[in-house]
Amino acid sequence: MASTQAAAATEQAPTKNPTLLAWVAKMAAMTQPDRIVWCDGSEAEKQRLTEQAVKDGTLIPLNPKTRPGCYLHRSNPNDVARVEHLTFICTPNKTDAGPTNNWMEPEAAYTKLSQLFEGCMKGRTMYVVPYAMGPLGGPSTKIGVELTDSDYVVLNMRIMTRMGKAALDMLGDSDDFNRGLHSTGDVNPDRRYICHFPQDNTIWSFGSGYGGNVLLGKKCLALRIGSYLGREEGWLAEHMLILGVTSPKGETTYIAAAFPSACGKTNFAMMIPPKEYAGWKIETVGDDIAWMRPGPDGRLYAINPEAGYFGVVPGTNYKTNPNAMETISKDTLFTNVALTPDGDVWWEGKDGEVPEELIDWQGKPWKKGSTEKAAHPNSRFTAPMSNNPVLSAKANDPQGVPISAIIFGGRRSNTVPLVLQAFNWTHGVFLGATMGSETTAAATGKVGVVRRDPMAMLPFCGYHMGDYLQHWLDMQKSIPQLPKIFQVNWFRQDKNGKFIWPGFGENMRVLEWIVNRVQGRVPTQETLLGWVPRQDQGLNLNGLDLPAEALQEATSIKEDEWKTELKSQEVFFEQLGTKAPEALMLQRKLLIARLDG
Ligand code: SAT
Ligand code: MN
């Protein structure tokens, strides 16, 4: 489409915002779509787009009796996860992106990607998707606009964000919005780039149609650009769930917890406490991302910038996460799961019998007993948070919730004990900074390898990791009532490779200890690594079928393992060079001295 046509299309735009109109026209002139459609977020629009997506094969309708309002999408098999090696932070200086990010010089990146975007939407529609990250009108809320040629992306953004007219109204005439440009291109991994330009509040994503690569509000804006803005503006953008835990006495404590992708954030945020915890209640504020800023009363307040959940499907069932099962029972988009003959979806770890026959995630016939997975290990659901039976009323509160505890948790089969509390904020930042985790299917690459993943932000930090850790340390000065910091590990294994701790709802026992510590109710025991539950007044194990030796193993601290761990941490800190914060290096020295003493 010629640029005159682009100009004509922007004339029909439901906004007079000059910066927005000029930018849309410029991007349209480059990508040359046949049509430009401004999304308003209405039901009619959803219906229209869904019908069209069904017609063009993007979505397969599921059985309206068993999965009302649900659809299945199969992505290109070469495009099933985030691609960290193709994700770039484009800052003028390489050092600003730091050693843990891929870097491209901004002008070089714009030039390279312009060649790909040039004319890439010929014959296609460009959707203009205005969206808000955070409750509308809130002080922490940010506006983004994503231009995309994928109706699947639009339908996902509609669930994951507050999308459409309301976001455009909030933006008004302001030029303060994130500029996101996305095209699926030809879904060729050789021409796939996810580029972030923090200085320009801009994201360009080409060649993918998958989740975190293309739903630009999520990892790209809410975390990579968000973390950059957070440092400039004095707040924190974190890869954390947010939950409220209410005791039988009616006291609610809000907690934020960082775990890497596919390590159980959604399960933890929706947990149902075991029967011994009658009267306790967990409510979800968020399952993936927290934006946290100091509030007027000196506490740290968190909002969930998202409006939906993009969760891992395999392993989800009525035992591991009944609330997620309810959440995905309607109005949900499934990506890369298997299809049953009666039009329902299936995945490894779903309740009930394994079906005799299925169509697998690639659309191929599948038979029970096959060695191939029917659902991709990183298959996902996209579901509105309003479906969640335990959604906190505070999820829509623009002010957010006051955070009393921050938890860092990795996936570690050894070394890291079940739970410990940091001695203080600096030590807590050290625990977060030195987090390690075994890799999962959420990103392409080898699964099960331990890598350092500071605060679960390794793939999501939009600037130098050393500066990021220093920013965390500096935040202490602006939060008079600091949250307490904890470290957990649900994933410790025994000699036979079996998980020792039962996890899921039973994590309530650890959570209760954390709440009790925050409220100053239980004594604790000091160890080399931090404070742990005392044997007498520690974890409530009533009704839990766990032998004493198993608990002992799950909570043990083995000095030889810690010597290996410290070596691996050293490699990470060396990578940060002179930007490794002094306070963390001192924490490291203290720990070494304690272990050697
Ligand atoms: O694909 S996403 O980045 O959205 C999910 C995840 O890896 O956490
Ligand atoms: Mn995530």
UniProtKB/TrEMBL annotation:
The keyword Flavoprotein does not apply. It catalyses: oxaloacetate + GTP = phosphoenolpyruvate + GDP + CO2. The active site is at residue 263. Its cofactor is Mn(2+). GTP binds at residues 262-267, 380, 411, 504-507. Substrate binds at residues 82, 210-212, 261, 378-380. One of its GO terms (biological process) is gluconeogenesis. Residues 367-387 are annotated as: Disordered. Residues 23-231 form the Phosphoenolpyruvate carboxykinase GTP-utilising N-terminal domain. PANTHER family: PHOSPHOENOLPYRUVATE CARBOXYKINASE, PHOSPHOENOLPYRUVATE CARBOXYKINASE [GTP]-RELATED. Belongs to the phosphoenolpyruvate carboxykinase [GTP] family. This is Phosphoenolpyruvate carboxykinase [GTP]. It comes from Corallococcus aberystwythensis. The lineage of its organism: Bacteria, Pseudomonadati, Myxococcota, Myxococcia, Myxococcales.
